[in-house]
Amino acid sequence: MDMKTPTKLGVLSLALLAGTLTGCRGDRSDKPPRELLPGMDDQPRVNPQTSSEFFAEVDGRSMRKPVVGTVGFSRQPVVPEGDEPWMETARQDRRDLLEVDPRRYLGLVREEDPAEVWRFQTPALWIERIPGSVDRAMLERGQSRFNIYCSACHGFSGEGGEIKLVDGVEIETGGMVGRRFNTPPPSFHDPKYLPESDERTGRDGYLFYTAMYGVEHGAKMPGYAHALSADDGWAIVAYIRALQESRRGTLADVPEEQRRILDRQRGGNANAGTERGGDS
Ligand code: HEC
Q: Is the pTM of this model over 0.85?
């Protein structure tokens, strides 16, 4: 055997070692690393605040606007300033989420631990009037929410869940579900729920709080805050007021013209315009 063989081997292993060591120097390189199985490591993206062909048909921006009805969170929350509709929606969503105003979000004159509210029988706790103005769109919203969330127990016309005798026939005046409660859901036409009657149950704030958080926090009636926004809650209150008003009109409220038509109808058909005439 030749003596050179071990020397050759030694040189080869030295070269390998040197190669390995220089490969691990940790130097920065602008070249992408060679990857055996890149998988989904590299994907195309667009830089923020640049234009992009991808959304060319919408607005050509690389970034999307906040989705209507959502609130973005980050370490520095962005509260958009301006009067584009989506901006006001975003600001309102944020206010809804933070629930900063006890009048609007609780129907109470001051912040109060919800667990304590039912212990307060003080009228001063509930706000008297719906905050903000009421318009037709609000009433329509209130009607649709009422019919979905309240009518099952309180009836479409708000008569509650009692059985009444009408012309000798027993009829369910209100919601189908209502009668299953030990205490039937009350009628909203009960004078105690009229605005001027009771300083507690008659107040808009009381109806709102009940709609949102139930009676005694669900013990006697479930609350619907999981499904209703504050706007929805106030819309329901407005609609309950409209239902009440619909029963309180007198002939004197009817314009002269129509009063004559009414008189004629009454003469022609004695049964027209009975108590249940406006029911659904
Ligand atoms: C699942 C049945 C049910 C539904 C749905 C329901 N209620 Fe009630 N509600 C009741 C019952 C039962 C009571 C009576 C509770 C008691 O005093 O024992 C009641 C009572 C009330 C009262 C009177 C509270 C008081 O202290 O006098 C109000 C106001 C009221 N409900 C509003 C609403 C509104 C608004 C909705 C819809 C958002 C609604 N309810 C949906 C069952 C229901």
A: no
